[in-house]
Amino acid sequence: MARYTGPVCKLCRRESQKLFLKGQKCYTEKCPIERRAYPPGQHGPAQARRRKQSDYAVQLREKQKVKRIYGLPEKQFRTLFEHANNREGITGENMLIALESRLDNVVFRLGFAASRNQARQLVRHRHVEVNGRIVDVPSAQVNPGDEISVKPKSRDLAVVQGALEARTRPDLPEWLALDEKKRVGRMTRRPTRQDIPLAVQEQLIVELYSK
Predict the structure, then answer these.
(1) 20 to 30 Å CA-CA from 40: which of 16, 77, 175, 188?
(2) CA distance linking residue 50 with residue 33, whole number of Å
(3) What angle do CA 173, 197, 93 make, to 5 degrees?
């Protein structure tokens, strides 16, 4: 599956805000968006001077922002949206809760990885267990009561130790519990929209896909 492998700071500049795609480094390093507050590319400064965007452009940028934060390609993101749309409740909130409940995101939120991209690699390389069994699918949904752990042979990995020791990002979410010494976490309940610290307007994404 193709994924973006270029400079992640360009993605932040394209969305005109810090997306914290480098994880903890974004809290300690000066971001290029602070020096060049306009989209990347030859026509970036001209785009920044435009006074008004169309409704479609605003909706598209909101969708692209959420996709980039969680590191999903378009097809996978659209599929997740359709599943959220078919469930009871508010579609936009269902979508964000499903994104937060992904295994790679939970590994990141627990602090086992410095970024979601790094968490995805840990899962893919079979370093993560769910309820005592290795799961190598980053998109796997974690349910309340599930135990997420770094497998015993991987607990001393430098990336895991470094991520836990350098925790400068916000505290552990209320819907997760962590035993840092044993490298074991648990989802105590399903997250709500109030638990998700994202400054996004998910309704714009719903409107975009509903056209």
Answers:
(1) 77
(2) 18
(3) 100
Contact 168, 162 (CB under 8 A): no
Q: What is the pLDDT along the chain (211 residues), one digit of tens a residue?
A: 456 656 555 555 555 565 555 555 555 556 655 556 555 655 555 555 566 778 898 899 899 989 988 989 999 999 999 999 999 999 999 999 999 999 999 999 999 998 898 999 999 999 999 999 999 999 999 999 999 999 999 998 998 988 888 765 557 899 999 998 899 999 999 999 999 988 889 999 999 999 7
- C-alpha angle with apex 109: 162 to 100, nearest 5 degrees? 150
Q: Tokens 């590319």, residue? A: 41
Q: Can you read off the two tokens belonging to residue 201?
A: 């307007």
